[in-house]
Amino acid sequence: MGDDGTAEPDPTGARERLERRRRDAVERLRSLRGDLAGLFDAQRDTATDDEHDPEGATLAFERAQADALAQAALEQVTEIDAALRRLESGDYGRCEACGEPISPGRLEARPAARTCIRCASRS
Q1: Domains in the chain, please, with CATH?
Q2: Mind giving me the DSSP string for 40-92?
Q3: pLDDT tens sequence across 81-92
Q4: pTM (2 d.p.)
C-alpha cells in the first residue's frame, strides 16, 4: 500500500499487461501496413479519377481508414513504450498532472494511463 492507503501497482502484472498490449498493437500495425500496401497497389491499378470513379473513391476511403487505424496503433505502441519507461524509473502508476496514484482499476483498464481519472476528465 502507498502512503495514502491505495494499492501500489504490481510491477510484474503491469509489465505483462503492457507487453501483451504492445505485442497486439504491433501485430495490428503490421497487418494494417500490409492492408495499406495492398490498397496502394489496387489504387495504382485502377483509374486515377477518384471523384468520378466509384471504385477509386472506395479505395481512397479504405486507404484513409486503414491509415488512421495504423496511426492509432503506432500511437498506442508509443504510449506503451512510455509506460514501460515509467515502470523502469519507478514513476508508473502516478498521475503526471497531480502526482497522486492512479487507481488500480484505471491501470487495469488502461495500463498506459498517464493521469488519474480526475485529471483526465479535466482535459
Answers
A1: 7-25+66-123 (1.20.120.910)
A2: HHHHHTS-S-TTT-HHHHHHHHHHHHHHHHHHHHHHHHHHHHHHHHHHHHT-T
A3: 999 999 999 999
A4: 0.74
